[in-house]
Amino acid sequence: MTEPAILIVDDEPGVLEALERLFGRGGFETETATDGETALRRLRERECFLVISDQRMPGMTGIDFLQECRRASPDTLRVLVTGYSDEAVCREAINKGEVYRYVVKPWDNDEMLAIAREARAKYDLLLRHKVLFRRLLEQREALSRTQYALIAELRKVQGILDHVGEGILVADRDGVIYFANKAFEALTGLNRSEILGRSLEDFLVAGGEEDGAGCSWHLKGARGPVAVHRNVVPLPCEASAPVGFLETYTPAD
């Protein structure tokens, strides 16, 4: 797999050669271009974690070029090389988010290598975060699909569960209730529309006692607290965590 490179853009061949040698000694791969259009083409052809551009080039300023870079490759960090007379312009570009850093000529080799190492670390961290975020979205989609399938199955057996003597509810992994049977309605004195979509925390208070039937809890309902025994069964799914929980409640008396 090809390593991400540093793209160096300057209309002076001597500057390109000097920076190529410097970054080569630092263990970095490089691409070069003498103008903005060629550089943008290089950026489309090769993954680059850092673009270093001179501010004063024919046809397109460095800031204008780096703005185009930002649109073409948002994750690539951008550094501007400039003379003392352009420092105010560069600071403004940094404040607008167009440029990550700027370097004043003549540059210090150690500083330039440090910038490259820092940029590579930031780039790699950003890519890892994007991968993790994508995995989280995929897991969330898998959980949603499984939850919808469970809701559909529960609706099919709603009539049967409504004749079960135990209070039954199903909550998602965040504790939001999306199913309750008639026995649970009776325990709380609330109808289904007052239960669904609410959090388990709205109804449960730990009783602080344990016996052979399980932990004693109190359900908060329309008629005040009701002592109950609670049993919780995780609902498995394809993802690593349960999609939710099926819970049963029986009066403690």
From TrEMBL:
The modification 4-aspartylphosphate is found at D54. InterPro entries: Bact_response_regulator (IPR050595), CheY-like_superfamily (IPR011006), PAS (IPR000014), PAS-like_dom_sf (IPR035965), PAS_fold (IPR013767), Sig_transdc_resp-reg_receiver (IPR001789). GO terms for biological process: phosphorelay signal transduction system; regulation of DNA-templated transcription. The keyword Cytoplasm does not apply. SMART domains: PAS (SM00091), REC (SM00448). It comes from the Bacteria. Pfam families: PAS, Response_reg. Keywords: Phosphoprotein. Residues 153-204 form the PAS domain. Residues 5-120 form the Response regulatory domain. PROSITE patterns: PAS, RESPONSE_REGULATORY. NCBIfam families: sensory_box. PANTHER family: STRESS RESPONSE REGULATOR PROTEIN 1, TWO-COMPONENT RESPONSE REGULATOR-RELATED. This is Response regulator.
